[in-house]
Every structure is written in C-alpha cells, then in structure tokens.
Amino acid sequence: MIIFNNGKYKSLHAATQGELDALESAVKKDQDFRPHFHLTTPTGLLNDPNGLIFDGEKFHVFYQWFPFDAIHGMKHWKHYTTKDFIHYESAQDLIPDEHFESHGCYSGGALLVEDKIACFYTGNTRRASDNQRIPFQNLAIFDKAGQLISKRPLLENAPTGYSEHFRDPKPYYSKDGKIRFVCGAQRENFTGTAVIFEMANLNDTPRIIGELAIPAFDNHGVFMWECPDLLNIGGKDVFIWSPQGKQREAHQFQNNYHATYAVGELDHQTFNAEQIAELDQGFDFYAPQTIANVADRTILLAWIGLPDLTYPTDEFKWHSMLTLPRELRLVQNKLYQQPVQEIYQNLTALQTIQLEEQVEIAHLDTSYIKFNANNAAFHLAFFHNEQGEKLTLSYDGKLLYLDRSHTAQTVWMQKFGRQRYCEIENLEQVEIFFDRSVCEIFLNGGEKAMTSRFFIRQRKNIVKTDRTLQLEIAQPKAIEIK
Ligand code: FRU
C-alpha cells in the first residue's frame, strides 16, 4: 500500500487525526442547502456515480469522491449499499493506494460475475519526470458484503491512436455472454469516440475490439466522450454518454457539456441510431450511469453537477449530490425517466392544495409536487426571501423555462447562463421534487426532465402563481445512512 499525499493528490490513508471531523463540522455550518432525500457527500466533492450494480439482494452505489475539499482532487470511490434507495449502509471505499492509480481512481462501472462485483475503473496517473497523464484501466473485485478483495491493472496507457484522455470503462455482457467494456476516448486528432474491449474472464488480458461508431451523431466540435454506457431496454440498444464540445442550441444542449442518449440497434460496432437526444435539460446534470442488471427495470443515476462548476456550498466544504434513482422506459424510441417506485412508495399521503395568487406551503423546500398544466400557460415563482430571491418556472404553451436569475449564483454558474428551456407541446403532468438546493422536474410522466441546483438562503416556503392550479403535494422520506 502506498500512502499518497501530494497537494490535492492526497488519499484518505493520509488523513490526519481529526481532519475529517473538522471537515464535517464545516459542512454542518451549512444551514440552508444540504438535501434530505438526495444522496450527497459527507464532506468534499462528489461527481459521477460509479460501479452501480444489483447483487441479487441489494444495490451497490459508488461515486467519485474527493474527501478533503470542494474541488476536483484525488478521486476515491465512495461506496454504499441499499435495498430501497432510502436506507443506505456504508461499505468499503475504493482508495487510491497503488502505483496504477497514483492520481485517483477515476470513473467506471461494475459487473456481477458469479458472486463477485467486478469494478472496472480508470487509474489516473502522472509520470513524475514530466507530469504526463498516463491512464490505466483497472479491475477491483469486491464481495457482496462490500469488502474489497483485490485490485490489479488491466491496461497501461491508451492504445495507439488515442490521447491521454482514455477512461471510464463500463462493463457489460455481450449478446453471446462475453465480458466487454466500453471506454470514453479522445483520438489523437482530438475528436471524441468510444472504444470496446473484450475479456474471456476476469483473469484475462483485455483485447481491443474497435471503436463504437454512431453515424447519425453530429460529432462536430466534440473533443472527448466521457462515461459511455451501452445497454439494452426491451430489445432495443441504448447508448448513453457525455460528449464534450457539442454545439449549444437555443433550447437544448444548453450547458457546457451534455449527457446524451441514442436509441437504435447495435450491429457489431456500429450503432444505428433512430433517436438521439439530450437526457436532461436542466442546469446541472452529467455523467449518468445505469444499473442494468435488475430484473425488468433499468435504473439510472447521474451527477447533479457539471465539470468546472462551482457552487455557493463550496465554502462549507461540500459540493454536489446524485439524482434520485430514475427508472428508464422507452416510449416510441424516446427515453422516458421517472424516479423509481421506491421513491413514490415512501411519500407521505398526497394532499391537495388550491393554488391561487400566493400560498404558503409547509415544507415546500423538501417536497414532491404534482399538477396538471392542461397544456395552458403558467408562471410560478417559488421560495421568496427578503432579498427578493425566487426560482421561477414558466410555460407559454410550447416552451417551459426555468429561471434562476434571482437566486444566489457563483461566477461560474453565471457564466453558464441563467435560464434553461425545454420545448414541450401538450404539457399535461408536471412533477417537481424540491430538496432544499435542488429541483428535479419531470414532464408528462418522464418524457422530459430538468434537473437543477438553486440557492436561496432564508427562504420562505411560498409559491406565487398567475393562474389557479390544483397542486398535489407530499413529502419524500429522508435518506438514512448507517
Ligand atoms: C466525468 C469525469 C470522468 C472522469 C471523472 C474524474 O465527470 O471527468 O471522465 O473519470 O470525472 O472524476
């Protein structure tokens, strides 16, 4: 075991006495923004969900974690297990302590192989002489109880033809039962792609199969594909990934980077896409990953955040959270997403509230609300404080837009814009999960989703409306962590 401790490349093994307790005290000073029913980091920075798997009894949820500050430093995999996405138990984390992960355990996925959890991940390393990044692809084996059994490097460096940006292996079984994994990559000519590997078994050395081609995807300007995920829903192939550099459009792909999906058919390495779209149109959503081995359902989690963003909670030494687990369905080749049934089952009884002009609603900031827009325009303003801050959601019959201009922003948040739009005709059902500094919005039973952070201190739980609406409201159950 090597104890890394070099500036921000410091592992948990190097934590000094009382250091984590001091960080936890800093986090506790945040009175306004810590979520109740979203999984968030105890301290430091959280990013991508990793290693998501169902072991036959419970789910394993890992995420990218830098424990010591709200910055991207030495990445660990924080590890929890859960049966219901409400009660979580801490399991053994993946801590960088080998030469093949000297600068962090970067993202990857898991596969259940017999009774073992095989976690494929990128070992980020930098050469001492010139700081050149050398990516390893590694394998860590956990047992179902969540204990680490072993880890080893599988591949050193990117294959010929690719730059140092070669990472995020996501394993899956091929249609003929082989172990495969797909990595996000940048070609030497600075274009983004994904590369597939195959192994006969976990002791094998991976061999390269080739690039995944998606002819229908406009890769213009795209310099890197991160976090690829190949899966199958009801007989259709689905590819989910996070391309970087895609051109922004007026009403979609509005962030700096985007989580995207393609639905179609995978023919060898060619993905014949019948549909390509953005997965979520809110301000903060990236690096989604699915749990593909649960009978009859596909569950997705994502990072509610984006690379390069800072948030007002950084001063309290915590940054970001994961989305609620979402079940994916295909409806006419479109990917629909809605929180899993466990989240709905754990809501308090729905209460109906007549919304006229202005209403105060107890616990609005940790609530689930639902209403029918009847395809007519509305303008809603949520949470007000003395400084006139509020979050607004409006619909004009074609376009829904979320506006966080009148909320606290960091410079980086402002840089990325103040409104997010979503084109949707025939808007019927609107569902919103508010959790203190985050909202997840689902339209028409998951046809579109918008996930965003927002920061309003000392807020009043008030809604103002320009139209009478019948709201149904309930409280989701808070997460418990042991
Ligand atoms: C995506 C990402 C991955 C990488 C990880 C590092 O957010 O950049 O490509 O493995 O985060 O934390």
UniProtKB/TrEMBL annotation:
Subcellular location: Cytoplasm
Function per UniProt: Enables the bacterium to metabolize sucrose as a sole carbon source.
Matching PANTHER family: BETA-FRUCTOSIDASE
EC top class, as a word: hydrolase
GO molecular function: beta-fructofuranosidase activity
Start and end residues of each Glycosyl hydrolase family 32 N-terminal domain: 38-339
Alphabetized UniProt keyword annotations: Carbohydrate metabolism, Cytoplasm, Glycosidase, Hydrolase
Gene Ontology biological process terms from the UniProt entry: sucrose metabolic process
Pfam families (UniProt xref): Glyco_hydro_32C, Glyco_hydro_32N
Catalyzed chemical reaction(s): Hydrolysis of terminal non-reducing beta-D-fructofuranoside residues in beta-D-fructofuranosides
Broad class of the protein's primary localization: cytoplasm
Source organism of this protein record: Alitibacter langaaensis DSM 22999
SMART domains referenced in this protein's UniProt entry, alphabetically: Glyco_32
CDD domains per UniProt: GH32_ScrB-like (cd18623)
Domain Glycosyl hydrolase family 32 C-terminal residues, every copy: 359-455
GO CC field: cytoplasm
Family: Belongs to the glycosyl hydrolase 32 family.
Documented EC number(s): 3.2.1.26
Pathway linked to the protein: Glycan biosynthesis; sucrose metabolism
Stated name of the protein: Sucrose-6-phosphate hydrolase
